[in-house]
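Data card: per-record layout.
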Amino acid sequence: MAKKTLDVSRVALALLLDSDIVIYALRGKKPIVEFLERLRARGYKLAISAVTVYEVYVGMRPGEEAKIKAFLKSLACLPVAREVAEKAAEYLRTFQRQGVTLTNFIW
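The structure for this 107-residue chain is written out next.
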């Protein structure tokens, strides 16, 4: 069976932002906001994972929903690979047995 190779000339590459970076940007941390603006100005596509969407929504404060939705919609959202989801579930089960909730783990 022939090995499949990825033709990168046909793939739009994006920078995947960590949840912390997204949260700092949403809170208006100037160095982060300016850095993301520079990246966009240079043509970089910014992305988040579906897990980041979850994490940001879990920590959302009252009155922040519209701002958060608008910001997250400005970013590409990448799906979570099956293997990653399976491993995350395994970790979550392990932590839950120890009395640690996902919210405790993330924040």
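Known properties of this structure: Residues 66 and 72 are 10 Å apart (CA to CA). DSSP finds six helices and three strands in the chain.

See the next section for split statistics.
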